[in-house]
């Protein structure tokens, strides 16, 4: 009875509800219309803070997309890359996907407020992605535009603040993101643009799709290991280079006969490091100043390649390049300028630069290129060994164990100069291992015969030369003696005349 007596009537409940809803709507409209976005954000987060007491023991870091609205925030980009590895396995409600015409992969980005949980070294971390659209000021209707702001909030317990999060977790995110980006990176091949107007250096690029890698490369196993270790050491020693005051660059000279894998090694290095390749033809240049511009237009984490350096340089003058760029007047491109620029200014303007020269004739190179400290590693790409052949057989024909013809091939390869390119060509001739290997055997036999006959001809030639030489010497002797006799006769005659 008491209850019934004190219960409000349904009409009063309804009118109270109606007036409450109206007030709420009025408040919401005022809140949205009259308060700026930032103020709304502030009030909401203050409410959140007081309504959830458990957060008071937490710290929240804000990671904005841009620094002071200008430069890209490296940590934001890294967080985005890293968090995608967490999101794809969990459930993201909305993602943005795009693909540029030259991209190989899709690019995915967060599209809306997302919450992601992570754990690291025993601590729990909560990420929240925020996206906010704000209207820009505009002068006319046509200028109407909206701007989007993105940021991450990272929350975790206060006790982890300095030591764990700021020191190790964020560092871990940066390095993980770098590795992830590197995995996805498409290596580019740059060549000098044909029509660079007004001396402006411009490089054209295409995707570098050379399939060579260290597993497909037939070369001395120890040397291959040394090169890989050298590359690894180079990329991880940023601080070392800074400490010793050296530019962060590395130079390799690859030399050896045609078809021994110099270009394939360059491709393997580029694919291994995911470094872009700049293929520089010195004959496209006509002056030192243009060369400088061209080199300065290259980017970090790249390999500058100058193939067949012995053919580009006129070694008789030691300095002037034989440039084919006709119609440009006197050419002023010097080897010393190239080397000095590479050693000095160019490498100090960038990081993680590699330069590779190749040649078929190391003995013809200018000593300036060979002097100690110029090229850090001289790599000799040599003829194919039996070990190299086995690797090629495994790659081309999937023969991973012994084959009946291997013994014969090993014997024939002994003391026969055959390039990996020649072996590869034979192995490509048939998918049937038996046929392809028989082709190799026949090829090696031919090579051996040719080598022997060349040696015989050489021997014959040299013995013929010996005979001619002996005859010449004999003749000279005779001439000298008869000359002396004639001389004596002339002297005697002169004496008699006197
Ligand atoms: N060491 C090797 N390992 C695997 N394949 C090789 C090797 N050397 C050559 N080849 C094969 O031969 C082809 C030609 O080799 P590459 O162009 O690398 O030789 P190169 O030494 O650069 O020759 P050049 O001096 O004429 O420029 C390669 O595409 C590859 O198929
Ligand atoms: Mg080559």
UniProtKB/TrEMBL annotation:
Task: Locate the coiled-coil region(s) and give their ranges.
Answer: none
Q: Which reaction does it catalyse?
A: ATP + H2O = ADP + phosphate + H(+)
Keywords recorded for this protein, A-Z: ATP-binding, Hydrolase, Magnesium, Nucleotide-binding
Please name the CDD domains in this protein's record: RecA-like_BCS1
Q: Which Pfam families match?
A: AAA, AAA_assoc, AAA_lid_At3g28540
Instruction: Report the sequence similarity comment from the record.
Output: Belongs to the AAA ATPase family. BCS1 subfamily.
Q: Which GO terms describe its biological process?
A: response to stress
This one is known as: AAA+ ATPase domain-containing protein
Q: Gene3D superfamilies, alphabetically?
A: 6.10.280.40, P-loop containing nucleotide triphosphate hydrolases
Against PANTHER family, the record matches this protein to: BCS1 AAA-TYPE ATPASE (PTHR23070)
GO function terms (MF aspect): ATP binding; ATP hydrolysis activity
Q: Where is the AAA+ ATPase domain?
A: 248-385
Source species = Rhododendron griersonianum
Its cofactor is: Mg(2+)
InterPro entries linked to this entry? AAA+_ATPase (IPR003593), AAA_N_dom (IPR025753), At3g28540-like_C (IPR058017), ATPase_AAA_core (IPR003959), ATPase_AAA_CS (IPR003960), Mitochondrial_chaperone_BCS1 (IPR050747), P-loop_NTPase (IPR027417)
